[in-house]
Amino acid sequence: MPHLTPPASVVDIARTLERAGFEAWCVGGAVRDAFLGIETLDWDLATSARPEVVQRLFRRTVPVGIRFGTVGVLDHAGVLHEVTTFRRDVETDGRHAVVTFGASLDEDLARRDFTINAIAVHPDRLEVRDPFRGRADLEARVLRCVGAPAERMREDRLRALRALRFAGRFDFSIESATWMAIVESAPHLGRLSMERVKQELDKVMAQVARPARTLERYREAGIFAALVPALADVPPARFAAIDHLPHRPLAGRPGRIVLRLAALFAEPGVAPPRDLERTLKALRFSNVESRLTIDVARALAAPEMLATFEGDAVALRRWVADAGRLVVPSALRVACARALADGAIAGGAEAHAWQRACVGRFRRLHRRAMAIAWRDPITLGDLAVDGEDLRTIGITDGRAIGETLRRLRDAVLEDPALNTVEQLLACARRLP
Ligand code: ATP
Ligand code: MG
User: Fold this and answer.
1) Cα separation of 385 and 425, whole Å?
2) Which atom of ligand 1 is nearest to the CA of 156?
3) H or E, element range at 90
4) How far is the CA of 29 from the centre of ligand 1 (A)?
């Protein structure tokens, strides 16, 4: 099993622990990913050594989560590896657990959430410890709780969200008792902080290649009704559209994640978008995320043009001016993704041809819109005249200047050729 071999620095750390008389095993996500054939760098170790011992055994450590038994050990290259003491939960409250050390490897594996996350591999001997048949579930592509699902979800409600994320990320089915426990958890998810919920949503957007199915599961389980009512009743195309946004490669492309969030939440035509603002605030959206989502929502309120991806130059120029140069590409991507999702739901062979035509029309509109955005005068700042120029012709009142500039901008949106000092001043003189 060559793909199971952890990096040399992890093996070194494990050997140091074992030489001192402790057990050391690779556990968690890296082991799971290795069995799935996915490259991974984040190898975590579990050990019988207590945290203070781990701190003593290694020269460079970071107290990552000492209370929970986790010490970060820095290898020669300065890369941090988490080393966590075997532990057992003594008390849980729906999110946090009080843990004790002095547990065995099997006890440590038993407190893990899903069978696929509860496999251990010995870094030297490559011996596998898999008491919950995680490998069989990986093989069968099933997500299943370790132990009794309802109880495990009661201990920590976050597991319901983690379950949906892992199932989506690996395209696994969800074992039926585990699914029932997720549904049962939904009304209790208020136990989680909104920061946590948002973090999970971000991870779904970052880790799940095509998240529509995962979002549908959130809805089916009643999780949106409990946590994000704004998403409980949206049309299916809203979720499906996210699968049609560009998604590869997602790693290192935070902009793509923000676009996915915007596509998920942007309710077209809400102006002023107070409900939307409230929803995003409740979910602790960052300013950048909120801004884009609200701007995209506003821009999507141009139904004719975005439904057909056609429009005359003046209409397109007005739309670009209202949307804002920087918002146009995002708004068009979301509009196209939603149109494609609508087409896909209609289904059939014709749908395929229709989708290709749709993408073609979208590309043309995108090219035209970008040319307008970066070539034509569309903002007050693009005008050939400013307030000082208007003063020279006797318009001195601040409000009148603002109003005149806006009307001149409307005129150049109709006809960009008007954007010269002489023509605009002449035009300003003629305005009533
Ligand atoms: P990722 O690749 O997303 O990091 P991961 O499996 O490593 O996936 P982590 O959140 O890093 O996930 O957690 C590491 C391991 O700790 C998990 O594989 C699981 O065994 C255990 N674990 C994490 N969170 C929980 C939880 N809430 N309940 C039980 N076990 C958990
Ligand atoms: Mg991890």
Assistant:
1) 8
2) 27
3) strand 88-92
4) 6
Q: Is pLDDT above 60 for 392?
A: yes
User: Which of 113, 178, 196 to probe ligand 1 with, by most ligand atoms within 8 A of CB?
Assistant: 113
Say if CB 36 and CB 138 are below 8 A apart. Answer: yes
Residue 140's DSSP bridge partners are: none
Q: Given the DSSP bridges, would you call strands 173-174 and 142-143 parallel, antiparallel or unpaired?
A: parallel
Length of the chain: 432
Q: Find the ligand nearest to 113 CA.
A: 1
The tens digit of pLDDT for each residue in 117-126 reads 999 999 999 9
Residue type, 3: H
Q: What are phi and psi of 28, to 5 degrees?
A: 80, -145
How does pLDDT run across 69-117, given as a tens digit for each residue?
999 999 988 999 999 999 998 888 888 888 899 899 999 999 999 999 9
- Only one residue has tokens 């596509």, namely 263
| pLDDT reading at 2 higher than 50 | no
Interstrand relation of 80-85 and 88-92 (parallel, antiparallel or unpaired): unpaired
For the entire predicted model, the pTM comes to 0.91
Q: Does residue 134 have its Cβ closer than 6 Å to ligand 1? A: no
